[in-house]
C-alpha cells in the first residue's frame, strides 16, 4: 500500500507569468512556496487540502485532459468576484441534477476549472 503524505497538481503553462497572474491575482490563491528565480520560477499555491504548482513552460497547447475541481463555500459570491476581476466565465452557476451547484471557468491556457458549492442539504454533507 502506498501512503500518500501530500499531493499537488502540476501545470506547465505556455506563459508562466500570465498563469501566475491568473491563479494568484484573478483567483486569489495563496502562495505556499516559490522556488527558482525569474519568469521560469515555480510557484506552489494552496488548494484546500492539496496544492497547485505552476512551473516550467509548455511547448504545446493544453490538451483538455486536465481539469481542476475546486469546492467553494458560495459559488454565487465566487461568480460575482471573479467576473468583477475580469475572469471569463464559461458557464455561470447552475444547480446540476445531482444537486451540486457548478460554475466553469478556464485558466489562460484553457485548462477547465469547475467551482463547486455543496448545498447544506446535499448528501455529501451528511454521513449515514
Concise description?
The chain has 128 residues and is an alpha/beta fold. It has helices at residues 16-26, 75-84, and strands at residues 8-11, 31-35, 42-47, 50-54, 67-71, 89-95, 101-106, 112-117.
SS elements, strand count = 8
Helix amount = 10-25%
CATH class value: Alpha Beta
- β-strand percent reads 25-35%
| Cα Rg | 16 Å
Number of helices: 2
Structural class: alpha/beta
What is the H/E order? EHEEEEHEEE
Oligomeric assembly: single chain
Name the CATH superfamily assignment: 2,3-Dihydroxybiphenyl 1,2-Dioxygenase, domain 1
Low-confidence stretches: none
* Overall pLDDT confidence: 90
Largest sheet: 4 strands, mixed
**What is the 3D shape?**
globular
Describe it.
This protein has one domain (8-125): 2,3-Dihydroxybiphenyl 1,2-Dioxygenase, domain 1, CATH 3.10.180. 16% of the residues lie in helices and 34% in strands. It has two helices and eight strands; from the N terminus they run βαββββαβββ. It has helices at 16-26, 75-84, and strands at 8-11, 31-35, 42-47, 50-54, 67-71, 89-95, 101-106, 112-117. A four-stranded mixed β-sheet has the order 1-4-3-2, with helices on one face. Strands 5-8-7-6 form a four-stranded mixed β-sheet, covered by helices on one side. A hairpin with a 2-residue loop joins strand 3 (42-47) and strand 4 (50-54).
Amino acid at each position: 500500500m502506498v501512503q500518500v503524505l501530500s499531493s499537488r497538481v502540476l501545470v506547465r503553462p505556455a506563459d508562466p507569468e500570465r498563469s501566475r497572474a491568473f491563479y494568484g491575482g484573478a483567483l486569489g490563491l495563496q502562495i505556499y512556496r516559490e522556488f527558482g528565480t525569474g519568469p521560469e520560477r515555480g510557484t506552489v499555491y494552496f488548494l484546500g487540502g492539496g496544492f497547485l504548482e505552476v512551473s516550467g513552460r509548455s511547448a504545446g497547447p493544453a490538451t483538455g485532459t486536465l481539469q481542476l475541481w475546486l469546492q467553494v463555500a458560495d459559488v454565487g459570491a465566487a461568480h460575482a468576484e471573479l467576473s468583477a476581476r475580469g475572469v471569463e466565465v464559461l458557464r455561470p452557476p447552475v444547480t446540476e441534477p445531482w444537486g451540486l451547484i457548478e460554475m466553469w471557468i478556464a485558466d489562460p491556457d484553457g485548462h477547465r476549472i469547475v467551482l463547486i458549492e455543496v448545498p447544506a442539504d446535499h448528501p455529501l454533507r451528511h454521513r449515514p
